[in-house]
Specification:
alpha/beta; Chorismate Mutase Domain, subunit A; D-Maltodextrin-Binding Protein, domain 2; 6-stranded mixed β-sheet; 15 strands
Length: 370
């Protein structure tokens, strides 16, 4: 057969497939109505698993492709049923009742002390807020939990050093809402009370800042020492001869340090993304980023199936992080960021269907990222 002949055969097969697919989706609509009457859940993992096994067994060398095809069809079928049944009623109510604006915080918690990059981010997000400084990320979450701070400002990832794993672990532990985000340009310098770099024997800073400047630091013989924050490292360098800090120029100036080397970060476009955590859900009309988390059963294709649903809805994933669940044997929570607004019915429908279907699901917020 020639190529054109084979293509004609494919077109004929496709023309037969289309009406059968439409009939199947119509059956899904009928199933949804029956499930509504009987109070049955949309997702039936046992039945779907049996269908996938049976189809794969009958497909010979095309078993993998058949499994993927049937999995995708059943995923679309579930989405259709969720739309009819109005999934996630409790979550829909929470989102509907969320205040449409983020109030100006009176007190905001952040890492380090005056002059830290976290303090700079806090000032940009809440110019009128009083800053409460803490030496570890966990204390920031506790301050928000007990009401000592209205919100917390935390770094979650850097463009060159990657994710701040400890913060993601705390996000998944506390499940606070995210009410805002900021991408902050980060320019690091080497600052010391010493007047010459030859006098520096040890360099201190937060582990993330040390990662961001690893290329510069590896080119010298300094002893590199992790510290609680960049600003606290600057204060320590001001008090201790023979030491320096990787910090911002603002922190260096604040502690009267000499800048021995400027812009020492690995990447000129170095940026850190900060989030705002809050006990209360706020959803401003102009919100453009959504965050959520969930876990998945240990079965073939579960993560792929979830991610396909975002692609089908035309949603762009901007972040995915997996973190181990404490006291579980190699089980993981997944954290996702994606662009969107819950005022879009399809976006809200997807989130609510995942809320009904996935274990350990939490909607973490729909917020504006600056």
């Amino acid at each position: 057969m020639e190529l054109d002949d084979i293509r004609e055969e494919i077109d004929r097969i496709d023309s037969e497939l289309l009406p059968l697919f439409i009939k199947r989706m119509e059956c899904a609509e009928k199933v949804a109505k029956i499930k509504a009457e009987k109070g049955l859940p949309v997702f039936n993992g046992g039945r779907e698993g049996e269908i996938l096994r049976s189809a794969a067994e009958k497909s010979g060398r095309h078993a993998g492709e058949t499994r993927a095809l049937f999995s995708y069809i059943m995923s679309m079928s579930r989405d259709t049923q969720y739309k009819i049944l109005g999934s996630g009623k409790a979550l829909r109510g929470t989102i509907k009742n969320a205040p449409p604006f983020v109030p100006e915080a009176k007190t905001a918690a952040c890492l380090g002390q005056k002059g830290s990059f976290s303090h700079e981010a806090l000032g940009r997000l809440f110019p009128g807020a009083s800053a409460e400084f803490f030496s570890c990320f966990g204390d920031i979450f506790e301050a928000v939990k007990n009401g000592r701070a209205d919100c917390g400002v935390l770094p979650v990832e850097n463009s060159s050093a990657g994710s701040v794993g400890e913060v993601y672990d705390l996000i998944l532990k506390y499940r606070f809402y995210i009410s805002g985000a900021l991408s902050l340009p980060v320019r690091d310098c080497l600052a010391s009370r010493e007047k010459d770099i030859a006098g520096v024997k040890a360099v201190y800073s937060h582990p993330q800042a040390l990662k961001q400047c690893s290329e510069f630091l590896s080119g010298h013989t300094f002893k590199v020492c992790p510290y609680q924050s960049t600003a606290q490292a600057a204060r320590m360098a001001a008090e201790t001869p023979g030491t320096a800090a990787v910090c911002s120029r603002h922190a260096a100036d604040g502690y009267g340090l000499n800048v021995l080397a400027d812009n020492i970060q690995n990447c000129d476009g170095n940026r850190t993304r900060f989030i705002v955590i809050s006990r209360t859900l706020f959803i401003p009309p102009e919100a453009n980023k959504i965050s959520l988390c969930f876990s998945l059963p240990h079965s073939t294709g579960t993560l792929c199936s979830v991610l396909e649903r975002f692609a089908r809805a035309g949603l762009n994933l901007t972040k995915m992080e997996s973190r181990p669940i404490p006291d579980k044997n190699f089980e993981y929570d997944f954290y996702l960021d994606f662009t969107g607004n819950v005022s879009d019915p399809d976006t809200l429908g997807l989130i609510c269907s995942l809320y009904d279907e996935l274990p350990r699901f939490s909607f973490l917020g729909n917020y504006t990222e600056k």
